[in-house]
Amino acid sequence: MQNEIIYGIDIAKNSPRSRELPKYSVVVLKNGDAQAHNMVPRHRILKMVRNDHPSIIAVDNIFELASNKRELIHFLSKLPSDVKLVQVTGGITKKSLVRLAHENNISFNRFDPDEEAETCARLAAQGIGCEVSLFEDITKIKISRARSLGRGGWSQNRYRRKVHGAVKVKSREIESILEKESKEKDFTYSRKIVEGFGGYVRCEFTVNKRRDEISVKSSSTSDVQVNVRSVERDKIKYLPLKQNTRKFTIVGVDPGTTVGIAVLSLDGELLFLKSCRSISHDETVKTIAKYGKPVVVATDVTPTPSAVEKIRRSFNAVIGSPGEQIASEEKIALARSFNFSYSNDHERDALSAALFALKSYRTIFEKIDKKAPPNCDVDKVRTYVIQGCSVDEAIEKAVFSVNTGLHKSGNVRKESETESDDESRQMAENLKRKNKEINELMEYVLELKDEIAKKDQRISKLELMVNKLRTNAYKEIKKDKEIKIRNSKISRLKKELKQVKKSLHQSYKHSQKLKKIRKMEIKGEGMPVKVISAFTKEDISATRESYGLKAGDIVYLEDPSGGGAMTASILIDAGIRAVIVPDELSYAAQSSFLKSKIPVIKDIPLQRADDFAIVDPEILEKAILEWEEYEQEMRAAEEEQKLQFLIDEYRSKRKRGLV
User: Fold this and answer.
1) Crossing angle, helix 422-523 and helix 391-417, to 10 degrees?
2) What is the DSSP letter of 21?
3) Of the candidates 371, 402, 435, which is a domain's last residue?
4) How many CB atoms neighbour CB 526 within 10 A?
5) 5: which of 139, 444, 551, 583 lies 20 to 30 Å off by Cα?
6) In whole angstroms, how far apart are CA 77 and each of 82, 294, 438?
7) Domain of life here (predicted)?
8) Residue 34 phi/psi, 5° resolution?
9) 318: helix, strand or coil
């Protein structure tokens, strides 16, 4: 890092949480020479960074630059994407700046902001500290309309088609760029489209690559805007600048002709995801080994396939098996946290297997994070726990391995310095005795660990039994629920069947009645009568459409009120033989029927069946004869009245001398 530009920053006045804007001391380290700038506001720092383009901005506390995570993201989004923000005091577990400076032979005045800033820059130049990572290695590209379409007028559809077409064209241009770069740089991407009239309303690409590693940039035209942004992490991640040891990993494998491989760190970071066709076992092992040392080799099926077991033995890792088949919906839900980074089912199955294994250890990992001491290698403790140790044993084992190395180096120095000193020789004998006691205690500890391992195995077996019992209980609950749903459905169908039977019974009774009427009609025991519900034009027309009205029909008016001469003329024109009524007709209707010599019969017994009825022929004939007698009487009276009228008129004329 000697030829790179490194910024060291320390707060000089106020703070990000104060009312007044903070001022900073900025030291620019270039080729070993330091140049200090005093009382620099934050906006000027951003301008300097854009001009100098440093590789690293080093601070002792990132929250001197911003008061919270949201503000820090805002600050980083304004920096060039390849500029690293480094916290030299470490990540989650921190060391003081004074201690770090002392360990690396750097002296400074901790009350001078310029010297603190320079110390931060020099420590970062030596690879000390952790890079602050606030963004995933995933980029979102959104192509959308640059303006609102509004309500519009006559040309609104043409305008909408123009804008949506421009969005579609831009989306295809960007997709062709991504297609080309994905083959060159080996990354995957997915696409989501919302279609509109004449094109796209918007199009979103999720690219599994950092923003600075793809050539698509944010832009805007009169119709289309392109927004390129990195995906934020749920929490701040600290990445050590020096990576001296291989990472411990969890590997998911989907075997077959096409092998899916997913590699996760113990923190859940996706290190590798790909599917390879016709890949050999050795090539698979080499590919996995590139990204760290597998602690768990996981599969998404039970029992474990032989190909996965072979890979597990190659790394002497623990097998990760779900115990039962993982449903497709659960696989999709597990992979959703990585924004659907997979490009086919093999990659999805491998990723879901690794995530399922990580999920099973999540509770114990949280317990380790709480209990682990500051200087302990957490990943090593996690590895010991996965291999079968308890949390306390794993911490003790990790700390002991570090302390053993320190004790050995200290003993060598003491023996070389006190070779001729009797007192030191005595101390060496005491130390030897103590070491012997320690070895005996260590053997005892190993015995206890063996016993604990056996107990852990028994606990694992019991947990498997509990899981099986839970599965059976779940199946019983599901079965009871299905039975309840079916019983409810059967009850509803029974009610429907009861209603259908009732309707069928009524229909049967009606059918029997009609048959009876028809038999009586055939035998001559009755004459059919057509029933009209009301003496109106509409009801007469309805009866005519449904059953017809022809000459010689007998009609029964259920409600004879309301009809007049015009209504009566409809039945007269149809040529009916007689009209049966329960009450009196209007005078106009009565007169019309009388003139047309159509009998109007009142109150004779009928046998009803909906719109049909039947009457005894003898009773009907008798009633018609009675009506005819009445009609003759009425006609005679009418003739007599006319004759009387002529006589009266003649007498009147004689009296007046007109005749």
Assistant:
1) 160
2) P
3) 371
4) 22
5) 139
6) 11, 35, 55
7) Archaea
8) -110, 135
9) strand
| Amino acid sitting at position 185 | K
Which of 318, 208, 338, 321 minimizes the C-alpha distance to 268?
A: 338
Sign for the CA dihedral angle at 117, 119, 123, 128 comes to negative
Last residue of a domain, one of 103, 128, 153: 128
What is the three-class DSSP state of 608? strand
Of the candidates 564, 597, 604, 565, the one whose C-alpha atom is nearest the C-alpha of residue 582 is 604
Give me the amino acid identity at 590. Q
Which domain covers residue 301, as residue numbers? 248-371
Domain count, the chain: 5
Same domain, 480 and 558: no
Peptide bond into 528 cis (omega under 30): no
Q: In this structure, is residue 592 part of a structural domain?
A: yes
Are residue 588 and residue 625 in the same domain, yes or no?
A: yes
Looking only at the bridges linking them, the beta strands covering 612-615 and 527-532 are antiparallel
Instruction: Supply the DSSP symbol for 488.
Output: H
End-to-end CA distance of the chain, in Å? 152
CA 596, 598, 601, 607 torsion: positive or negative?
A: negative
Angle, alpha carbons 627-632-637 (nearest 5°): 125
Q: What single-letter amino acid sits at 588?
A: A
**Per-residue tokens: 23:** 């001022």
The set of residues, in sequence order, having a beta carbon less than 8 Å from that of 96 and lying 6+ positions away, is 89
Q: Within a domain: residue 279?
A: yes
Count Cα atoms within 13 angstroms, Cβ side, for 469. Answer: 6
Three-state secondary-structure class, residue 79: coil
Report the 10 Å Cβ neighbour count for 150: 9
Please give the Cα distance from 53 to 75 (Å, whole number).
15
User: Is residue 490 in a domain?
Assistant: yes
pTM above the 0.85 mark? no
- Specify if 583 maps to a domain: yes
Identity at 575, one-letter amino acid code: G
Tell me the two tokens of residue 163.
């804008």
For the chain, how many residues are written?
659
